[in-house]
Design a protein that fits this description.
By secondary structure, the chain is an all-alpha fold. Helices cover 82% and strands 0% of the residues. The longest helix is centred in the C-terminal third of the chain and has 27 residues. It is globular and about 55 Å long.
Length: 258
Amino acid sequence: MEVFIKFVVCFIAGIGAGLGTGFAGLSAAAVISPMLIAFLGMSAYEAVAIALASDVLASAVSAYTYAKNKNIDIRNGITMMITVLLFTMVGSYAASLVPNAALGNFSVFMTMLLGIKFIVKPVMTTKEVMNQTSAKKRFCQSILCGIMIGLICGFIGAGGGMMMLLILTSILGYELKTAVGTSVFIMAFTAFTGSVSHIAIGGMPDMLCMVFCILSTLLWARIAAVFANKASAKTLNRATGIVLLILGAVVLGVNAVK
């Protein structure tokens, strides 16, 4: 019975995490961690380790799907990824010096607001318009935005994928599919780094839960990524907005259960 409960919780958590990853490039930790903590009584550290491990393959397969459809910016994505990783450490150090309890639900509310934004004001930028920005300007923007994302994620401790999507579409002017493709490309590497460090420090988490979460997240991320790359810009904006709204509401509900 215990194994069945683990399977159901992990499968449902994987649905939310996979759809969030495939549609919007969100981190699986935003959904999986609170679900495992609330319904399986898992420690926060172990839950985050499982969520990050689930994120690796889900983000990688999503990035492959977006790359196959030429909806990814690898060169600037690498620049941003390196900057994000460096300044996440800086943000983490800053957070250790400041009381930060009030910011616990920041990423959840931002996820819901971002969902509303995609429904009310969809991103309709085309690749032609996006590519008008010079390579030098895009490189500089990638570094500056990577610093911003890294500091915010390190300070708050969550919201990396959500912040990347917001900044890529609203500040860098990326077309939505390219923004999500670039986001999941970056998240694959950041999730791998995070999961390895969590497991190295805290030991191997519950293997059954980890396997269930990885497989479920991978399945639904693949389904979402395939759909997203075939959908029109208008349909993708609406689908992404609805997924973000639902995920935000579910995580708030799960946090209330805790």
